[in-house]
Inverse folding.
């Protein structure tokens, strides 16, 4: 080997010491699984042969490549089964954002002769909101539904928003910031009753909670591999049989001519393996994550004054904790948590560079000053209760320090 051999860095787990409230290992605790997740070792192992040995293009006619075509078909069937869908209803994409774009743009174009009205919500991911704005520039009308203080869509408002020219309803299955799970089955029933297409962005929910596209009357569904310990750069759009949607990427005949481009066999294999593991372990993993989630929420709300939970208390993703702390800036909290070896966020990773408060928190009625002090922690299967204890102690200490430097907090305490 040369002077600079390749080094593989193994990030060690924190080992919390309750007696002196310290960590034995100088590493980090990862609590941002809503942003992305690490690929499981089994996923990486499944993918490796398709980088070097089984590298054939599935569209080629010779035997070597046709084996990969069969592998892609098998993966498609595995993913379809997880949704109670048909394999020919799964179209592989580069991720959730592409799937969301495809669903809205293709539906708008295909059904423009019927109408030009789309309904969505104020708390959608920007992949939906920015696409909706784009469609408005093309002459479509979009209604952005309000949500209640827990982030739940108001079904009466949805019914009232429907017009004869409404062609599509798009409501996310569960919110990426506050974790609230929407009444998707009821929304699907409303859409079906009025003959309107129903799309759901299930990027955060898929692999976390059970989803049945038939039971929920879902016509299109977006998902992404890297949110459930699969690889980045791979996702899918479920499109119910019979929907007349245009091709999204023009070129070859891949994905039944709807999404051209050489199939990402490596990513598809990894995604399918991640799906297999996620759905086999869902019940046990959900119980564990819910236990840690509720432990975090209960202790923080009990031990830190002027803190509030964002999102529905029980109808939320098993791994999501979103709390706002008055009189502090969320950015300062994140920086100090990072210094303590804790990875968390203030909201969507796609808007982490923005100085504006979360559009989701504003939509549930939080004033700007409280929305700015929000913290999102999303738990993974590898996290432990010992880590939760350390995280809570660090948050308590940091919030106390930040409030001690806050003129607003000082003034509030003088007059309280």
């Amino acid at each position: 080997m040369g002077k600079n051999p390749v080094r593989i860095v193994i990030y060690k787990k924190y080992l919390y010491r309750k007696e002196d409230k310290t960590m034995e290992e100088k590493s980090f605790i990862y609590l941002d699984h809503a942003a992305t997740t690490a690929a499981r070792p089994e996923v990486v192992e499944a993918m490796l042969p398709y980088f070097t040995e089984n590298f054939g293009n599935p569209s080629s006619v010779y035997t070597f490549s046709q084996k990969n075509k069969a592998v892609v078909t098998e993966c498609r069937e595995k993913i379809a089964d997880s949704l109670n869908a048909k394999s020919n209803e799964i179209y592989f994409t580069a991720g959730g954002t592409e799937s969301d774009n495809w669903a809205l743009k293709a539906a708008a174009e295909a059904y423009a002769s019927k109408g030009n009205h789309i309904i969505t919500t104020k708390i959608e991911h920007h992949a939906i909101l920015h696409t909706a704005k784009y469609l408005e520039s093309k002459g479509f009308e979009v209604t952005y539904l309000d949500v209640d203080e827990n982030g739940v869509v108001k079904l009466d408002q949805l019914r009232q928003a429907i017009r004869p020219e409404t062609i599509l309803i798009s409501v996310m299955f569960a919110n990426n910031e506050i974790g609230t799970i929407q009444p998707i089955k009821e929304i699907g029933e409303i859409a079906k009753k009025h003959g309107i297409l129903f799309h759901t962005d299930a990027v955060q929910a898929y692999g976390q909670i059970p989803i049945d596209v038939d039971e929920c009357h879902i016509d299109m569904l977006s998902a992404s591999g890297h949110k459930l310990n699969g690889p980045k750069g791979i996702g899918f759009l479920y499109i119910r049989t019979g929907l007349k949607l245009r091709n999204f990427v023009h070129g070859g005949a891949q994905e039944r001519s709807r999404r051209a481009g050489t199939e990402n066999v490596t990513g598809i294999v990894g995604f399918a393996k991640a799906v297999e593991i996620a759905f086999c372990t869902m019940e046990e993993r959900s119980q564990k994550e819910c236990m840690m989630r509720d432990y975090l929420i209960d202790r923080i709300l009990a031990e830190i004054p002027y803190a509030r939970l964002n999102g529905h208390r029980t109808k939320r993703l098993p791994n999501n904790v979103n709390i706002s702390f008055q009189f502090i800036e969320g950015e300062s909290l994140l920086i100090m948590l990072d210094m303590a070896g804790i990875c968390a966020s203030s909201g969507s990773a796609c808007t982490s560079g923005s100085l504006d408060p979360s559009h989701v928190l504003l939509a549930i009625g939080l004033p700007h000053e409280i929305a700015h002090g929000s913290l999102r922690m999303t738990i993974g299967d590898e996290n432990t209760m010992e880590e939760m204890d350390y995280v809570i102690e660090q948050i308590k200490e940091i919030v106390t320090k930040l409030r001690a430097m806050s003129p607003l907090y000082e003034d509030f305490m003088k007059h309280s």
User: Anything to note?
Assistant: The radius of gyration is 23 Å. The longest helix spans residues 282-303. Confidence is low (pLDDT under 50) at residues 1-18. The CA atoms of residues 92 and 236 lie 4 Å apart.
